Amino acid sequence: MYDYLIVGAGLFGAVFAREAADAGKRVLVIDKRPHIAGNVYTEDVEGIHVHRYGAHIFHTNDSTVWGYVTRFATFNRFTNSPVANYKGELYSLPFNMYTFNKMWGVVTPEQAAAKIAEQRREIVGEPKNLEEQAISLVGRDIYEKLIKGYTEKQWGRDCRDLPAFIIKRLPVRLTFDNNYFNALYQGIPVGGYTKLAENLLDGIEVRLSCDYFADKAALDALADRVVYTGPIDAYFDYKLGTLEYRSVRFETELLDMPNFQGNAAVNYTDRETPWTRIIEHKWFEFGKDAQGNDLPKTVISREFSSEWKPGDEPYYPVNDAKNGALYQQYRGLADREEKVVFGGRLGEYKYYDMDQVIAAALRCCGKELG
Ligand code: FAD
Ligand code: UDP
Hints:
This protein is α/β, with parallel strands linked by helices. Among the domains are: 2-76 and 191-240 and 318-369, 3-Layer(aba) Sandwich (Rossmann fold); 94-167, no CATH class. Helices cover 32% and strands 20% of the residues. It has 13 helices and 16 strands. The strands form 4 sheets. Strands 7-6-12-13-14-11-15 form a 7-stranded mixed beta sheet. Strands 9-2-1-10-16 form a 5-stranded parallel beta sheet, covered by helices on one side. Strand 3 and strand 4 form a beta hairpin. Helix 1 (11-22) packs parallel to helix 13, helix 2 crosses helix 13 (354-369) and helix 4 packs antiparallel against helix 5. The longest helix is centred in the middle third of the chain and has 16 residues, at 140-155. It is globular, with a radius of gyration of 22 Å. It starts with a strand and ends with a helix. The structure holds flavin-adenine dinucleotide and uridine-5'-diphosphate.
């Protein structure tokens, strides 16, 4: 008999499992995938840690979370600085003086600010959607070349039908600073994210390729309480309807060349290129293997964003009004499941980054474990 059955060996499940085990609880972790680490899973290909479910860069301003995660991994000095490719023109991201200089030829912050001010005049009042928010932040030229196409590919919706907050994640700076994140702490765990998850789950029983719903009654009978980190609508057999997600398809290739694009991430911001971005995984670790040798080959992944349908991997919750309302109904059902705690990106249907998911798991432990 276990105190906790934890469904999902992603970051939420692994952090909860670690804390529960350290508090003296007996825990069993299951995952339907054949591996741990959930979406942050990395696998070794020719010495390169390939991010199987998309590029993951750890970044946080939360010193408690940073203190916690660095107990389980050493982080390298990687700083995310993606490049945008618009029909062969290259721009620096996020939007900063390098971008403004390339776009408009402006040289000083004052000139850049004036250009943005002139272009944002078309927006009057509070921005009502992503398009208006983007123009109000950086003006129409940048919106047209670097935002519109990418966003519409990423979300499969017109920018006028998307909420403004999505674009507020991106910094806009009047300095020469290509660091994509406004974060105090940033990096990639040395040895890959799978190693980080292994360290979190050290000494904890894990059953892989084990789908909770294939044997729910028997699995529930093994434990006093359940921590469920899968999709909340799947838990209730989609009885109120399916929550929408965006899914991503990756086409990954091993190339017999040392350097394909010279950067970890290149975003393709035009509408015509079918992929949103290309990741070259070796640059997350500076092109070196564990011994510090240059790697002769490279692995790239093209990312294609797609509408989710049952059976696909759900990646991004679509946090619009319709899905928010449906989630609230599921939340009501979840609150009545006395034995079950719902957590994580899918369990809470929230656009969580890794640091936020760790913080949420630690909060949940605080409530559950006392
Ligand atoms: P998950 O990692 O999804 O884990 C849930 C686990 O539950 C999965 O392993 C799943 O197999 C398992 N499960 C589900 N249903 C069942 C079932 N029925 N039975 C058994 N097991 C089940 N965050 C950042 O901070 N930085 C980034 O750069 C970043 N990039 C991202 C890029 C992409 C493409 C995506 C999709 C996300 C990105 N994130 C990033 C967010 C990050 O992936 C999440 O915050 C984090 O992985 C969520 O952890 P989780 O444990 O909640 O969910
Ligand atoms: N975005 C964009 N152009 C880019 C990169 C991002 O327009 O080159 C927009 C897009 O709408 C995206 C949002 O900014 O959804 C947030 O970007 P971020 O990289 O944070 O998205 P993530 O992939 O992490 O969800």
